[in-house]
Every structure is written in C-alpha cells, then in structure tokens.
Amino acid sequence: MGHAVSARSRRAKCETRVAPRCNPGRRRARRAVTPALPGHPRRPRSTLNEGTEDDGTPRTARTAIGLDDQSPGLLRGNSVTGTSTSPWGFNIMHGIEPLSFTVDVTTPGWHDLVVYRSDAAILFDRIIIETRAGAAGDGLVGPPESPNNIAAPQRATVAPRPRTMPELRRLPAIRTSVDETSTVQGVRDAEAAKSDNETAASVAVTDGQVRITGHRAGTAEISITVGGQAWVASVTVGRAAGAPVGAYLERDGSAVLDAADALEKSASATAIDGNNGTHGWALARNGLQVVPPADAGAKAQWLATSAAQAEALFKAGPTEKVNGSSAAGAPPRLDFTVAIQTRGTYYLFVNTSNPNADADSYHVVVDGQWRYQSGKSGPETGFETWYGSTSVAGAALTLEPGEHTISLAPREAGLVLNQIALTTDDTPGLTGFQAPSGRRASAS
Ligand SMILES: [Ca+2]
User: Fold this and answer.
1) N or C end: fewer C-beta atoms under 10 angstroms in the chain?
2) CATH for 1-164?
C-alpha cells in the first residue's frame, strides 16, 4: 500500500498512515524523498548545493527521515558535480534526485513519518512508500497520490526536536592563527570544551571562558557544554601573522612543507586554481583539497604520462580535455620554492587524506618540468598518511644547490595534501606530521 505526502518546509512533520490492515512486521519503503534541483538544467553550476561555502567547507545535501521516535536515517544527496552521464548529470536532466530509505513498521495503525531538518536549499517533491518491492513502479515521479481522507499538505506540522538528537546551538564561525590564543565570544559559564582536531586548534576552559589556540593551518569543530546544552563552532586556523614567506631551507638532505602555506600566495608558496573555472583549492582539516572532489560516479582527472603530454595538459585551454582527461583545462597547482644546500638525489613524499581512490593521485613538476605521476601502486586513501612513489620512472629528483620550484598538480580532483617532504632518503619511514623546514624571511 503506497501513500504519498508532499512536504515543502524544512523540518516538516508529515502525517502519514501505514495501512491498518498491513500485517505487523518489517516493511520496506524505498524510492522516496526527492530534493528538487533548483536552477535550469542548462546551467548546471547553479544546481543543488554543490561547491563550497565561503570558508571552504564543502557543501552537502543531507536530510533525515524516521518513523515516530525511531532514530532517523541520514540521507545524503549528491552535491558533487559531474558529467552529463554521471549520477549528478542524470539528476540535473531529470530535475529530481531519488533518495532511498527504509523504515521498520512493527505495529499496525497510525504512524508519523518525520522529515528532519535538512541542509538549506533542499525541496521535497514527493514521498513514496512501498511495502512490497516494485509496487511503486519505475516511473520518475512515482504513482498518483494515494486515496486518503485527510488534506495532507494542511496536516503537515513542524516536528518536535527528535529525542535522539542533542540540542545543538551553532556559534558564529571563528578565525584564528597559528600560535594565537583567543577567547570564544558569546559563551559564558562553559563547563567543558573539546576540539575534533587538536592538531589544528586546541581548546581550554578557564573560569567558564573557552580559549582556542591555533597550532597548524587547518579547520576544526569545537564542542562546548554550557548548562547541559551543546554548542558548536567551526574554527579556521590561518598561518601565523608575520611568519616568513621566503624559500624553504633544505637541511641535512630534508625539506618539509605544509601544503596550506600555499594559501599565502607568496612568490615562494602559492596555490593556483585550474583554468576550467571549476576546480580550485580549499583549506581542509590539516591541508588543502582540490574541490569539488571526484569519485567513481563523477570522475575528474587531468592525465599525462609523458613530458610531452604534460606540456599539452598544462597548456590546455579552459574547455579542452587533453590526453583523454575527463576534466577540462589545465589542472590546479601548488608551487613551492625550496633552497637546496646539498646536491643530491631527492625523493618526494606526501602526507595525504584522500577521500577515495578516484581522488588520490598527483603530478610532480620540478622547475617547470613534469617528472612523474603518482598513484601507480594502488589506492592512497589513508587518513593523514605518508605516501611516495620512489619506484616509478622519474621519481629520483637530482637537485643542484640553489632555489628550485617544486609543483604538485592533481591528477584527480579531491586530492588532499597535508604535508610534502623532499628527502635524500628513499625509505624515510615518515609517521605523523613533521616539523616544517625553516624559511628565508622573504623571497629572494
Ligand atoms: Ca586514483
């Protein structure tokens, strides 16, 4: 028995019925709740919640649905752009994205289907419930609305806060710097506080006040308990004020660079967006990510397997897809200047937090010359994990004393770079973040 309900409000409560004559037991509902895609299909960049917020946070398209006071199931819509043949592309063409969920109905009678607070800009078209697989058919918008004796839209009410979720209050986003300690405004009598990323920012409570200290460029979310309620705030940590911006100094055959330094856009460390108007760099937890990320359903690659192909790739016009790449144009890039003291053969290692196997590879370019692509030895998707491709052709980088430009460009969008190490040791056994190299005061 199917029953359709229209709901247009954020956190709407949809009065719905599960047929009294249904036998008690497990029931499956699928093919439901569709956030409509605002915007015209021919203008794909103005559609559902893709891209990033101003502070670099990737946007999401989440909602949640539950039955009565059961724990709701979280639904994740597609917020990653793709090609016309990707799931994103099909959603755009259909103007609709089906999201599936399951509810367990254990007793016959009336039940409340509760649609929880959703990310902004999500519009629900229809909710379709199947108690037998295939009952709703395979049409795009499902069957006509079920017969009923209530005026369904008028009966939708705002649901109470679910008992399974703590009350969360969000504070304004906080910006701080490395080595800076500041007091969180708007919170008094705090009982406890914690950071979800102590590497970037730690918190301490003193006399009811919460103080944040920045340790590393990155992002964190802090949770504060006040009067038994939970408050949260996102924190962005920028580079230390007045920190040197000159070349990185190699010492004893080693140089270590924080990828996020590139946001300073100095002559010695800079981040360059791709020229396709779509892909750029965003501050991630402890590094930089090429956004929007790709995955198996929405690949975005910039391919080159030789110096000649790389030359064509980096010269590509904004709409050209060269070497069979799925992404157009020249890729984004990070450029760093390293002052080598000791002539030698160096190997490059990166600490990454890549989200999936379609977002985990890069090109290495030294002094404008493409040297090699990574990612020939399987997925590199560990969290804050060091990888290096020492065995591939071109990985041995002979560097003479003097300044050299080390560039990394994504081979796949979504790549997350935290730290980069150049070392004369081809098996350095790096674990955790390394102390960054010293730098000259200013560009020479
Ligand atoms: Ca890959």
Assistant:
1) C
2) 2.60.120
